[in-house]
Specification:
CATH class of the largest domain: Alpha Beta
Number of domains: 2
Number of strands: 21
Structural class: alpha+beta
Largest sheet: 6 strands, mixed
Order of helices and strands: EEEHEEEHHHEHEHEEHHEEEEEEEEEEE
Radius of gyration: 24 Å
Number of helices: 8
CATH architecture of the largest domain: 3-Layer(aba) Sandwich
Strand order of the largest sheet: 6-7-8-3-9-10
Distance between the termini: 38 Å
Strand content: 25-35%
Helix content: 10-25%
Shape: elongated
CATH superfamily of the largest domain: P-loop containing nucleotide triphosphate hydrolases
CATH topology of the largest domain: Rossmann fold
């Protein structure tokens, strides 16, 4: 395993700057997820670590060694792509061992590594089959196995599960987490799927516009988003938002035309300013649906999700989502003041 340290990285594609002045530190043995919408720069960053993109400026260090301009083969990395990229005429064993054979690895060592990877990924019964005889999930296991046999310092995954159906994605996601525990390797994983990110990551970097918006544990990011983009990107349904201002005349309260909430217990990073324009955010599970709730609003839609339901309330022209564990009817709710987030309306950053 090896650490990865990136400093002031700039990546350019023609006349366009995709990533600029980006810093990232990955500890040895961590499972890091790069999460963000399409076009945010997450795959570009991963490919830059792999050496597939040239850096216009900055540095990339792997295991303490400067790899900024090193060839991909010299970086001690293994890369798993979204597409399986298997050789159709070779069986599973040959696909997994191809890179080792090209590098002149002794046959006994190749056999040992292939056997170990096949056992980890439950591929032993499939070693003589060709890719055309495998399911999508099995093919992706082979692609992961091909990376494992390299015994690399850092494993890079570029949306490896996006071509699979929901059930297979869930199964392979669980297997990847177990695999990380068994290998103890450094893994960097790219996805736009927040469920994958939240379940796999030790820490995750939420990206937008080629920049890291927040880098922390999944729980910390979910509970205390750094800005409005992170707040609304994570969560399904997303965070409910209310525009208003702070009132410090008696304690500290959030107020707008239809809502008043005591936020005296909020952990402000800076002293609150009276009259400051703010946005209050609250997760749907922190909307307390109850008959005596101070916010009266009709339910416009009920989404049954199995273990819970999502109630959509129409509150003065705004849709407010609430997650409830039972069949309560809705129609009135309160906001839990100890669960809210506050953002500056001008800068969109967390207060």
């Amino acid at each position: 395993m090896a650490s990865v340290s990136i400093r002031d990285l700039r990546i350019e594609m023609g006349a366009n700057t995709i990533i600029d002045a980006l810093d990232l530190d990955v500890r040895a043995g961590e499972f890091i997820v790069l999460l963000g919408p399409s076009g945010c720069g997450k795959s570009t960053l991963l490919h830059s670590i792999a050496g597939l993109n040239d850096a216009a400026a900055g540095s990339i260090r792997i295991g303490g060694h400067d790899m900024t301009y090193a060839d991909p083969k010299d970086r001690g990395i293994a890369l798993v792509f979204q597409s399986y990229a298997l050789y159709p005429t070779m069986n599973v064993e040959a696909n997994m061992s191809f890179g080792l054979r090209i590098n002149g690895t002794p046959k006994a060592e190749i056999a040992r590594r292939v056997a170990r990877a096949a056992e980890m990924l439950q591929l032993e019964p499939l070693l003589r089959r060709k890719p055309g005889q495998l399911s999508g999930g099995q093919r992706q296991r082979v692609a992961i196995g091909r990376a494992i046999v390299r015994e690399a310092d850092v494993f890079l995954f570029d949306e490896p599960l996006s071509n699979l159906d929901a059930k297979l994605r869930t199964e392979l996601r669980r297997e990847l987490k177990h695999l990380h525990g068994r290998l103890g390797a450094t893994m960097i994983y790219v996805t736009h799927d927040q469920v994958e990110a939240m379940t796999l990551a030790d820490r995750m970097a939420v990206m937008q516009g080629g920049a890291i918006q927040q880098f922390d544990t999944p729980d910390a990011i979910y509970r205390a988003p750094e800005n409005l983009f992170v707040a609304t990107f994570l969560g399904s349904p997303g965070m409910n938002l209310f525009d208003g201002q702070l009132d410090t005349t008696s304690g500290i309260a959030f107020r707008n035309e239809h809502l008043a909430l005591d936020v005296s217990g909020y952990p402000f990073r800076q002293p609150p300013v009276h009259g400051q324009r703010v946005v209050l955010g609250v997760r749907p599970e922190d909307v307390d649906v109850r008959p005596d709730g101070p916010c009266r609003a009709p339910v416009t839609l009920v989404e049954a999700m199995g273990a819970h339901r999502v109630l959509w309330h129409r509150f003065h022209g705004r849709e407010v989502a609430a997650i409830v564990p039972d069949d309560r009817p809705g129609g009135a709710f309160a906001l839990r003041p100890d669960k809210v987030s506050l953002f500056d309306a001008a800068t969109t950053t967390r207060l």
